[in-house]
Amino acid sequence: MIDDGVYRIKCRYAVALQKLIQANKKINRASGNTPHPGADDSYGKLSSSTGIRKGTISDTITAKTDIKGSTLYRLLGALGYSLAQFGAVFDAVTEAEIDAHMALLTKGK
């Protein structure tokens, strides 16, 4: 049985990382923009630039695994964000966003 509190923390990390990935997608796909180096916007690009398995990235986003500090640091570097910037996004994640992410994850089960 998964502790709901721990699972919610995993989901908070996942939502925060997804927000950063989506922000990069928006920037990189804006009309006339060429992809910004150091602003990866997909699991494949993140995997290529960090050496982290795509499955590990997916497991983090789907809250199947705890994220290690070293993994987070490498992902943030590839996304072009600092730990401080990530912290601000992480702190801004709402309970409603966590609930929505959890519902999305359990929908397929």
From TrEMBL:
Residues 28-47 are annotated as: Disordered. It comes from the Bacteria. This is HTH cro/C1-type domain-containing protein. It comes from Niabella pedocola.
